[in-house]
Amino acid sequence: MIQLDGLTKHYGSFVAVDHISLKVEKGLLYGCLGPNGAGKTTTLRMIAGILRPTDGRVLLDGDDVHQTPLVAKQKLGFIPDRPFVYDKLTGAEFLRFVAGLYGQEGDVVERRITELLDVFELSSWKDELVESYSHGMRQKLIISSALIHRPAVIVVDEPMVGLDPKAARLLKDIFRQFVERGGTVLMSTHTLEVAEAMCDRVAIIQHGKIVAEGTVDDLRKQHQTDASLEELFLKLTGGAHVKELAEVLGAPR
Amino acid sequence: MIQPSLAHVLQPKWRTALQRLRQERAEGGAGKVVLLTVAGLAFWAGVFGVLYFILRYFRGVEELGPLLAGKLLGLALLSFVSILILSNVITALSSFFLAKDLDLLVSAPVDWLRLYLAKLLETAVHSSWMVALMAVPLLTAYGVIYHGGWFFAPYAILVMVPLLVLPAVTGSALTLVLVNIFPARRTRDLLSIIALGAGAGVILLFRIIRPEQLARPEGFRNLLEFIAVLRTPTSPFLPSEWATRAIMSVLHGPFDFLPLLLLWSTAAGFVTLGAVLHWRLYPTGFTKAQEGAERFIRGGFWRSSLGFVLKPLSVAKREFVLKDIRLFFRDTTQWSQLILLGVLVVVYVFNIKVLPLHRGEQVGFYSVTLVSFLNLGLAGFVLTSIAARFIFPAVSLEGRQMWLLRSSPLDLRALLWSKYWVGTVPLLVLALILTGVTNVLLEASTFMMVLSLATIAALTLAIGALALGFGTLYPQFETENAAQIPTSFGGLVFMMTTIALLAAVIVGLSQVVYPYVRAFYEGHPVVVTPWMIACAVAVALLCAVATVIPLRVARRKMEQFEF
Q: Helix B258-289 vs helix B112-145: angle between axes, to the nearest 10 degrees?
């Protein structure tokens, strides 16, 4: 379970995240939606313990990420949007290293490495340095690293970026099965079709605040509309006032 | 079609540089600017001072003086050109083939000549700024001693500009050819080794030639032979020789316009030839540079060899240490610097060996103890430079992966612990070998041997901690090249603090060593006074504090890192 209590983040006078409170129950796949710069990534990075909140707290299964980080982070698997990994390690070495960070080693880890690399079709790249991986392959490796220690909670920022359709489908299946087995997933995404198809509940964030929260059906009811999530999103975030595209694009030269 | 101007193509570069300056000023306040200015001026003043005295001495020598001054300038400029070619070769690889802005520039309708000139300028600036700054006190000393007047300043710039352009064109052309033969990433590995090997070779050669012999004419059979050596240019085809002649002809006369003409016309010719080469080879080279080098790594050498030693550690610490060692030895730009380090150590030991100390029994003992004692400071300085290069960047290099370390349950103490010992243990081994070997060569007494080894061990532990501490306090997370990190402001502060520590330790220990030497010299038994004990304890405490506090500060700072 993920619980956010009055989570706030200031950068100087700029308020990136403004008193967000949220509870994501066990067995839920929860989506964070919002326009660029709304505060989604900042929120997720605070949940992962990378950024310190200005105010408020983050609990993972009851453990405070910033008060008892070592206990709380044992339960977490974090997948960032930018896949930076050690270029001079091989894929298998990277996964072994990450498992070590969670205190895991031995045959169990080796088996898990083989399984995960198989699932993500990286087995033939196992002993190749990460510097020769493509963007999508790095993303797959990072997803594998978030799963290597069997976390209870997965926090993922833009999961589908850089993945081919097959890998994207695989990831959807993995997340679905993960929550069916009692895990919790909190993800941010711009892909509204993905959110609509995958998420049990969604929160729409704008200017660092949650402006709507619930299942997609709840949101439709709240706003008395049958519109798609995309239209609902645009309505809530003020993106419906798009300029005439033809005017913006002009004629090709 | 209208082409963007060269200034426009270069706009992101100078705007970024300006913005970085503004940010630095805003973050560091006036203190940072003052510190940098004072350190820079002190360095300039130091170089200027040394050269001023040497040149003043040369000026006083009839006939030979200007020849000696010219030879010295020739040697300095030749060293500059050699360094510049090596540094341009490496920089050109990044700016022409691996830079992040290349996709944008190559896909835009910017013609090849503008791209070439923009990248050449970028390469030249990045490679040459340090040498250009170094040339300022050098040429100022020449101008002041030989009364060059205000006119000399613009004239010197006129001489130096083509001297900086020529290595930039040569280095870029060499890189262009190499990239067309090997993939760029493999070329980077090759270049790092070649460049450092060449650098190391130059240092060794320089040491073996022993240029200081020029200052000892008694080594030559007669004066005519000595003058003949001085008059002979190193090579009439070297641009450094033209620059020397251009400068000496205006300072000492008779004025000769030919060297300046040669410099500028050759530079122009080289730029033209370089542009033609770029036009012919760059498109294929750039395409090749996009190919990744296939790098399969099999087996677990480090795990099987070091795994046993690291077994008592926790899994997280063990994996972290193994990871750090693997990354170091797989990154050619990192480990190849060990070649240079090895050569420096050899030169250092060689210099100690050739010291003419053992001539008289008592004087010998006095000199040996003094040199052995001062050797501590020198060894400390060598260790500081190594720590600045290898330990100082350790935390910065984790920057892009910090998301992983911070989101995992890794204790920050374990991270710092790993970084500290992975850097400090090899440094300690080197320190003990260096001090032990030099003391054996010096035939130092047992007392000096024990004192030196104990002090250098304590100093190394402190230097390692200071490097890691300052590296964490002043991290450079965006820098991809580890070699650039020690040249940052934090690197300067680290060097200055460590030198202050070295000075304090030397002064403290001198209170212990001096009574010992005097007692020996005067034939009295050595009496250990409370003051000597107090000084030794104070030095030990200072080293302990310099070890513990930086590590604590680093941990606190790491807890505040945000990404």
A: 140
Output the CA torsion sign for B376, B380, B386, B390: positive
Residue ranges of alpha helices (H) inside B443-529 are 446-473, 489-522
Count H helices and E strands in chain B, helices first: 19, 0
Owning domain of residue B457:
315-560
3-state class (DSSP) for residue A19:
strand
Closest Cβ opposite residue B401 in set A48, A74, A86: A86
Going by the DSSP 8-state scheme, the letter that residue B273 receives in this structure is: H
The total number of structural domains that make up chain B: 2
* Across B352-356, average pLDDT: 69
Q: Let me know if residue B196 belongs to a domain.
A: yes
B268 shares a domain with B372: no
B331 and A CB contact within 8 Å: yes
Q: Decide if A44 contacts A200 (C-beta within 8 A).
A: no
Q: In chain A, what are the domains? A: 1-75+152-241 (3.40.50.300), 84-150 (no CATH)
Q: B185 and A128 in contact by Cβ < 8 A?
A: no
**Backbone phi and psi for residue A198, each to the nearest 5 degrees, phi listed first:** -100, -40
Q: How is B324-389 classified by DSSP, letter by letter?
A: HHHHHHH-HHHHTHHHHHHHHHHHHHHHHHT---TTSHHHHHHHHHHHHHHHHHHHHHHHHHHHHH
**∠ at Cα B343 (B341, B348), nearest 5°?**
95
Q: What is the pLDDT of residue B551?
A: 93
For the segment A113-165, what is each residue's pLDDT rounded down to a tens digit? 999 999 999 999 998 888 888 888 998 999 999 999 999 999 999 888 778 88
Token readout for A218 is: 């709840």
How does residue B264 score in pLDDT terms, banded at 50, 70 and 90? very high
The span from the CA of B139 to the CA of B142, in Å, is: 5
Q: Select the residue of A78, A85, A105 nearest B315 (Cβ to Cβ).
A: A105
ipTM over 0.90: no
